[in-house]
Amino acid sequence: MKSFNSNGDGKHKWTMVVDLDRCNGCGACTVACQAENNIAVVGEKLASEKRTMSWLRVERYFEGEWPDLRVIFLPMPCQQCGNAPCEPVCPVFATYRNPDGLNAMVYNRCVGVRFCGNNCPYGVRKFNWFRYKWEKPLQEQLNPDVSVREVGVMEKCTFCMQRIRRGKDAAKDEARDVRDGEVVTACAQSCPTGAIIFGDVKDPESRAAKLVKSKRRFRLLNEHGTEPSVVYLKGGA
Amino acid sequence: MENGRWVSRIKPRSAIGRAFLKGGILLFAGLLFFGGYFYYAPIFPPGKYAPQQPYEYSHKLHAGDLGINCQYCHIYAKKAEFAGVPPFSKCMNCHVNLSINKPSVKAIQKAYEEKNMGRWTRVYNLPDHVWFSHKRHVSKNIDCAACHGPVETLVVSTENRVFRMGFCVRCHQERGASTDCWACHT
Fold first, then answer.
1. ipTM of the predicted assembly exceeds 0.90
2. Distance from CA of A178 to the nearest CA of B (A)
3. Which chain A residues contact residue B131 at CB under 8 A?
4. Contact flag B185-A102 (C-beta cutoff 8 Å)
5. Which residue does chain B place closest to A94, by CA atoms?
6. Domain ranges of chain B
7. Residue B170 neighbours by CB distance under 10 Å
8. How far is A48 from chain B (nearest CA, A)?
9. Distance (Å, rounded) from C-alpha B50 to C-alpha B57?
10. Within a 10 A sphere around the Cβ of A169, how many other Cβ atoms?
11. Residue A153 to residue A7: CA distance in whole angstroms
């Protein structure tokens, strides 16, 4: 297994650590993501056709039979793979590897062939099948830092790129490095149990960099060699 | 549908009929093309966008002849993403006493007393998918004219340049700034 720091030649390597022992499946991360990133609410009918637009979903796994049942919740954002299956299949380079080790998606370059969504083993890429509307007072709450996606464009979790950019902006003003905890994604900020920890693993003192070395760590579908940037922790005291 | 194949139903027999059909198709295509062009063509030619503003203001007089610094009025340029339109209280710093007999100054004084700034129209517009910060550029001491052109010669606020990505990227490459897509797009 390659080291977690291997990919991304930039100054940072943003990583999300999700502690599954702390997650109670409340779904606050999903709601926060929806609000932060101008994600459309598609409604009941489209959701039943599996055209939901959430960038972060909470998956449920059941262990055992009733009444000895245990539910495991697994928040699933884009894994920001180091060796992403979505990147080589894009014919227009709308998705590419960013210097900070993120799997970037450029909406205005996307032509909507959906190869990336088909090639994603995690199923986290969402396609804008329709032009979604924000009812009259709701358009006021759109985040100005995030573009509203057009119809026919693929979209996915960006690790709250706009917040990373703000953090870097503030750091540049004071001519210093980005501090640990300065950049927090919307999901990490809203998690009531603190199960989601976001940070830069190139900063050895950051909380994420320390948790990434934990013995409880695992990554989803690591056998595919996708090198995800999201690290899960499970099964421990 | 003869022999189970797709066959055109319009089949003029004579040469004149065929010529009329071809001419008709060409005319229709031409109308569609030129009609579309004139329908979508901007009212202002590129780089000459000068929207109607609620009050008269001359950059030539203030920034050119009098030599007032851009950031005296556009105070947010070094603090935030937007340069900002100055409030009328900023105008009143001088126009309490200066050239108070001019009709344009009188209009502004009246508006200041009524607290009605009017709706000013943005001259430079960027698409929704572009993130631009004045702060980052001003703090690097990039001249305002590098992007906005010779504003100090304009009597009516006019867009000197239509911003396209090539313009941004060229400068970013020359100065060694980030050319990552996500530096500006999200």
1. no
2. 16
3. 145, 162, 165
4. no
5. B181
6. 2-40, 45-85+121-186, 87-119
7. 10
8. 29
9. 12
10. 14
11. 27
Token pair of B124, please? 């430079």
Partners of A104 on chain B (C-beta within 8 Å) are 180-182
Judge: A147–B139 Cβ closer than 8 Å, yes or no: no
Owner of token pair 């941004």: B168
Instruction: Verify whether the Cβ–Cβ distance B186 to A158 is below 8 Å.
Output: yes
Instruction: Name the one residue in this structure whose structure tokens are 């109308």.
Output: B31
- Identify the CATH assignment for A14-233 out of 3.30.70.20, 3.90.550.10, 3.30.300.30, 3.40.1000.10: 3.30.70.20
pLDDT tens track for A216-231: 999 999 899 888 999 9
Domain parsing of chain A, residue ranges: 14-233
Give the pairing of strands A70-76 and A103-105. Answer: unpaired
CA distances from A129 to A112, A126, A150, A199, B27 (A): 10, 9, 9, 33, 36
φ, ψ at A224 (rounded to 5°): -75, -10
pLDDT band for B12, please (50, 70, 90 cuts).
low
Place of tokens 């750091």: A171
pLDDT in tens, A9-51: 678 899 999 999 999 999 999 999 999 999 999 989 999 998 9
Q: What is the DSSP string of chain A?
A: ---TTSS--SS--EEEEEETTT-----HHHHHHHHHTT-----HHHHHTT----SSEEEEEEES-TTS-EEEEEEE-----TT-STTTT-TT--EEE-TTS-EEE-GGG-----HHHHH-TT---EE--S-----GGGGGGS-TTSPPPPTT-EE---SSHHHHHHHHHHHHHTTSPPPTTTS--HHHHH-TT--EEEEETTSTTSHHHHHHT-TTEE-TTGGGT---SEEEE-S--
Query: What tokens were used for B185?
Result: 């797009």
User: Closest approach of chain B CAs to the CA of A174, in angstroms?
Assistant: 11
* A172: nearest CA partner in chain B: B136
- How many other C-beta atoms are found inside a 10 Å radius of the C-beta of residue A213? 11
